[in-house]
């Protein structure tokens, strides 16, 4: 069990216990609901975008430690990012967890790196990426809504 | 062998090759039997022997191998008949599993019969496979699905059952043993009450046949469904028992080879039972493997297995209850060998990963019973389920691993 410390690092356990930006937003610009039917994880992601920049992002729902910590850390990482930067970060994070090749260093993961250990637990990858996929869906819905094309 | 003191769990374990395996450098503690059980060498050998020296397609073959394979397949049916004490061989239909069996009843029995305003009665503790086929048939016919609620302890609210059972009810379909809670339902009472109103009953026996002796004639159930792979047999094989009178009146479920007597473009004459419901080349090896599994279970004795597992259940319940922050979900007075639980501080999914690192295989999630999770307002549970080969020492390993998990998340 001790070798699971690589997966359940202190930072992850801390974010699980005290998730940041864990709140519902009453009037978000963007919103999406994400489900992992395999394990029952459910997450709602709320999004406020001002002038193309993620001004606020929060989540609530119910998930395992990996899911909750990943969502919590995601909200911190995303705040202040432009929409394009946010999408690039999602791609980079997704790459780090699912691809054998090293992820492109031009979009550094920063603190999100502690979640890279999840890659060694393939059935748990979906836990770590659920919040991100949900964020991506919220952003795409928002972009779709305001698109005039 | 009805005395637990004589129960030789060591020699049973020796029959299951996989139990000697190490997982992450720890001895495997396999507590995921409610999802699927492991296989004794007798089952593995029966399948190996078939493919090495006895295999051919069955029925209508004039050559020796086909006759041998046909005999082995029909011998397996005879084993099933004896195992559940069906009145005759042709009341035993081979299906691909419990799910397939329930869908067969939904489409061949219920669908032609149901009209708008009719009702199917199930319970809140059903597996999705005993919910969705009925939702589908209700959508097709305009009938309505009614659900018997469950108590906080995880028992059926029998007074509500009595109220919901009405002249509109056309079929009761109820699980014998809940896969998520372990509750053993009073199916004899349910069957008698339904029959008093002329309503037939299907029993989902996926979780019961490995743990409880079942006698379909004594129960007087109209249909009984179960799977091979939870009974130490192969996957892809299951059984639907049905009363002859009902099965004869039902149209075939699927059309194809073997389920016909004669085919012409003017019309087709269906085969007799049980072949009417076994279209296409069946799972020959699966049936033969299931036959071998049943023989194995009968050799150990289901009463002895049930007594052993009951001991494990009581011990595990006692051990787990001592763990701070652990809550058992499902505390029915009558329970079969599984414990569903949640921890205050650790999500079931994390418990599963942590226990796996200790070699302990449990299942985590909603167990294909989302309405049960919603009933108890939990997203998921961790579930340890016992089989004939589990030991008291393995329960100790489980309890210790849960303690360690809590420690790490503290």
CATH topology of chain A: Sufe protein. Chain: A
List the uncertain runs of chain A. Answer: none
- What does the overall shape of chain A look like? globular
Give the chain pair forming the largest contact, with residue counts: A-B, 22 and 21 residues
How would you explain this protein's 3D organization?
Chain A: This is Zinc-dependent sulfurtransferase SufU. The complex is a heterodimer of chains A (149) and B (410). With 149 residues, chain A is α+β, with helices and mostly antiparallel strands. Chain A has one domain: Sufe protein. Chain: A (Alpha-Beta Complex), CATH 3.90.1010.10. Helices cover 40% and strands 18% of the residues of chain A. Chain A contains 4 helices and 3 strands. The radius of gyration of chain A is 15 Å and the shape is globular. The N and C termini of chain A lie far apart (53 Å). Chain B is of the alpha/beta class and 410 residues long. Chain B has 2 domains: 4-30 and 301-409, Aspartate Aminotransferase, domain 1 (Alpha-Beta Complex); 44-298, Type I PLP-dependent aspartate aminotransferase-like (Major domain) (Aspartate Aminotransferase, domain 2), CATH 3.40.640. Chain B has helices at 9-14, 41-54, 64-84, 98-113, 132-141, 158-164, 187-196, 216-219, 244-249, 284-300, 302-321, 348-357, 370-375, 392-409; strands at residues 22-23, 26-27, 29-30, 92-95, 119-123, 144-148, 169-175, 201-204, 223-227, 238-242, 260-264, 267-270, 326-329, 338-343, 360-361, 363-365, 381-385. In chain B, the strands form 5 sheets. Chain B has a 7-stranded mixed sheet, with helices on both faces. A 4-stranded antiparallel sheet of chain B has the order 13-14-17-16, with helices on one face. Chain B has a two-stranded antiparallel ribbon with strand order 1-2. In chain B, helix 3 crosses helix 10 (284-300). Chain B starts with 8 loop residues before the first helix and ends with a helix. At the A-B interface, helix 2 of A face helix 12 and helix 14 of B.
